[in-house]
Write a structure and sequence with these properties.
Strand order of the largest sheet: 1-2
CATH architecture: Up-down Bundle
Radius of gyration: 22 Å
Largest sheet: 2 strands, antiparallel
CATH class: Mainly Alpha
CATH superfamily: Sodium/glucose cotransporter
Distance between the termini: 63 Å
CATH topology: Sodium/glucose cotransporter
Helix content: over 70%
Number of helices: 22
Length: 507
């Protein structure tokens, strides 16, 4: 594979993505609703593609192949399976009611249900979690440019973060949705063609004890059972509260579209993600047949691409870059809007009143401005913890620990109230952070970001902190909700869209 082919293929693709973002900026028309939730007009193909592309990030491709090659099918496949499970659960239980609520961000749900304090706490939790998520995708881009283009890792991270930033800030979710169609399609082609090539040229070889039917990976802690189940739980449940997923659910043109898009996205995530798992299982056999040795420190998928036709390698690499862009843009956009809307408490004013008073949409401009510090934070985390799969899982670990319980119970349990939500978020999130810094390894990988040596937390088996934090959140939420029923909770507040319509009706 020649460097010029990689530079050309990746360069053309990134130029197209930036071009789409700049073009779609014309359709924003100065409206934060157009920027954040695409005017709530995403039809089924767009909604499904953007949900699928959002789940197929580089953690679920590169992280998938790295973990599979080291630990077996369930270590890697848990990433796409967990993400697909999340979309399925969202489709069954949450997509329709969320779309019906006319929210602008996921933080609005916590505001409507629990009030201002919980809104801020939820937004803060999402901000920290999404910094890890963005970082994981920047890591993959950094490795790609380092391996194939000869840049340093830091230079690669800066290049891909700059591209994500430009087209996201320009076109918002409108740009993201249209580029996601291309990104999902290329990821599908790359995944299927790579699997077919490996199968026909080298054969699909599953090492003993590492296949999908080797359930010891799910039953024996020594074989990674705790970690594998923790991955499935964090992604399958924690990702339900993901601000980028919910943003796309809110942007669908109807509740039915939102639900169907989740189901299609779930199926697509499996169809694209699982082939990468089987390619990784065959990696050892491929290297043996070629008499080659993997490069220490490089993602195994990148090493494998040195031995496939140039055209196929470029297609797969473009798919990986697309996956990184699709999730990175969602992380930047959704988090910037959550901070602007739910932390800074910037309201949407009716367009007619803004124009009459000569005002611009302040929420739009603040959201765009906040994309700058959040992108920088993602770069810092990517350099501090240059891993792929574990960053994805850690992000949704934090959401599972702090937000899933108040979100799910707030949707379906009439006794859910503000004191319970505050306690669940505070305890669950704090417990997960404490157990993160207290563990030398996380999901089998070294914790190079922040580890504080200790004896007590270090003795907890890897993977169990995911469940411990979630259980703490649950066991504090339910009893506090019961014993504080006589405490006055805030009255339900109108959603952002309803506020805007009320303002418009006064004109």
């Amino acid at each position: 594979m020649t460097d010029i082919a990689v530079i050309g293929g990746v360069g053309v693709f990134m130029a197209i993505v930036v071009g789409i973002g700049l073009y779609m900026s014309r359709r924003i028309k100065g409206s934060s609703e157009n920027f954040i939730v695409a005017g709530r007009n995403l039809v089924l193909p767009l909604a499904a593609a953007t949900l699928m592309a959002q789940s197929l990030d580089t953690n679920a491709t590169l992280g998938n192949t790295d973990l599979t090659s080291q630990f077996g099918f369930w270590a890697g496949a848990s990433l796409p399976i967990g993400l697909a499970t999340c979309l399925f659960i969202t489709g069954v239980f949450f997509a329709k009611p969320l779309n019906n609520m006319d929210l602008l961000t996921v933080g609005d749900f916590f505001r409507v249900k629990y009030g201002r304090a919980v809104e801020i706490a939820a937004a803060a939790t999402l901000t920290v979690a999404y910094a890890f998520l963005l970082a994981g995708n920047l890591v993959a881009g950094g490795f790609l440019f380092e391996v194939f283009l000869g840049t340093t890792f830091l230079q690669g991270v800066l290049i891909i973060s700059a591209v994500i930033f430009v087209y996201t800030v320009a076109g918002g979710l409108l740009a993201v949705a249209y580029t996601d169609i291309l990104q999902a399609f290329l990821a599908f082609l790359g995944s299927v063609f790579l699997l077919a090539y490996v199968a026909t040229q080298f054969g699909l070889v599953v090492p003993d004890g590492m296949g999908a039917t080797d359930t010891v990976q799910l039953t024996d802690p020594a074989m990674g059972a705790y970690v594998n189940w923790a991955t499935l739980a964090a992604l399958g449940l924690g990702d339900v509260v993901a601000s980028d997923f919910i943003e796309r659910v809110l942007a669908a043109d109807s509740p039915d579209t939102a639900q169907k898009a989740c189901f299609i996205g779930s199926a697509g995530t499996l169809i694209i993600g699982i082939p990468f798992t089987y390619v990784a299982l065959s990696a050892e056999s491929i290297f043996d047949q070629l008499g080659a040795t993997p490069t220490e420190g490089d993602p195994v998928l990148y090493d494998l691409l040195n031995f496939v036709p140039t055209e196929l390698a470029v297609l797969v690499l473009v798919g990986i870059v697309g996956a990184s862009l699709s999730t990175g843009d969602g992380a930047i956009l959704s988090t910037s809007s959550v901070v602007a809307r739910n932390v800074l408490d910037i309201r949407v004013e009716a367009e007619s009143k803004r124009k009459a008073q000569g005002k611009s949409d302040r929420l739009l401009y603040v959201t765009r401005g906040l994309a700058v510090p959040f992108t920088i934070l993602g770069v810092v985390f990517a350099v501090g913890l240059p891993q792929t799969g574990i960053l994805l899982v850690l992000a949704f670990d934090l959401m599972l620990a702090g937000l899933f319980v108040p979100f799910a119970f707030g949707m379906y349990w009439d006794k859910a109230n503000t004191p319970a939500a505050i306690a669940a978020i505070a305890l669950g999130f704090t417990a997960r952070i404490v157990m993160f810094v207290g563990k030398e390894t996380i999901y089998g990988q070294p914790n190079t970001l922040l580890y504080i040596p200790n004896e007590s937390i270090a003795a907890i088996p890897d993977g169990l902190p995911t469940f411990i934090s979630f259980v703490l959140s649950l066991v504090v939420f339910v009893p506090i909700a019961y014993v504080t029923q006589d405490v006055s909770s805030p009255e339900p507040l109108p959603s952002e869209a309803k506020e805007t319509r009320l303002l418009s009706s006064d004109d």
